Amino acid sequence: MPWRTHAGNNSHGCRDCKRTFPSELKLVTHQDTQTGENPYRCSRCQKAFITKSALAYHQKTRHREGKSHRCSKCGKAFPWKSKLSLHQRTHSGERPFRCGVCDKAFMVKAHLTVHQRTHTGEKPYKCSDCEKAFSKKTQLLIHQRIHTGERPYGCSECQQAFIQKSDLSDHKKSHHAAEKSHECSECGKILSSKSTLIVHQRTHTGEKPFKCSACDRAFTSKAHLVIHLRVHTGERPYECSNCEKAFSTKAYLMIHQRIHTGERPYGCSECPQAFIQKSGLTNHLKNCHAKVKLCECPQCGKVLSCKSTLIIHQRTHTGEKPFKCSVCDKAFTAKSYLTVHQRIHTGEKPYECPHCKKAFTTLSALISHRRTHTGERPYGCNECQKAFFRKSVLANHQRTQHRGKSCAQ
Hints:
The protein is an alpha+beta fold. Helices cover about 40% and strands about 15% of the residues.
């Protein structure tokens, strides 16, 4: 039986964890999560649910029961007309809800409401256990599992359970991806599932079926489009619990959190240095431990990392510049150099920072800039342990402070 308290409206208390609830129904629902009881079972797929309403929602959304509202553009069906109307905006590009502060527009009013909190600083969802506050209810619910110990996403292969569904997915990929029968016929790469193989094959075919209605960019997968759309909406759903910085992807958040934890998971096998990001380790290995360099230039003896870079390098000796700009007649030794140059004429800056919206003409410039947000300093000095955002800054430091000593010396 529940116990009663007199703490305002939260008059129904759980005997097991002492949490209180505004109604007996909410208390009973909560207790079902504690006991693991799921009394409402779906007759179609045998999935079980805590509440009758959750079962009804599952049947509508998963088994197409009552899905009479179909999109004329893509054929997708919805249980309610309102859901169809929202979906159709992904085709029309309509964004009727506009922010009065920064003029950003949104498809859904709820997204505008959440966005406006970035201006007001409002965090209406407060944790009753530790007083931390969040701008979204979903963030609060996930956070509360730290206090309750609830881990609703259990692994079917082992006994581990997780707070978030994404954590379970990551666990399965890294620990139980034993059956990897999906091999790409083009390059031989082995993928963990048929769906990831299909997405991967688009890198060979060039197919990009998921188009952004705001800027016409296209993507190989829906997940990549969803992340890109946050550039336009300003949405940053992944918030750091330590310093309240927010990020557009979970990957950016995880990298950022290593600044707080001190974790450097990418260790060098040649020396004691370790790095926050894999790219930092890769750059370090290239710059400091590049022992295997197979392609040597017969003209000057310079050793290149692969045959293609050797061919480009040799053009500096022959003077060959086969890639000409159609606007100003400048010529280049490599096609990639021409592509970057042409952006001077077009004004194109395709590499946009998800944190501050600055745009860059090259990927390397964006990667370098992003380190100002993540705090990553992949170029470490072996003499004094200082680290730097850019290789050029490290080189300058070594020239001025250590008389030209490099990490390879």
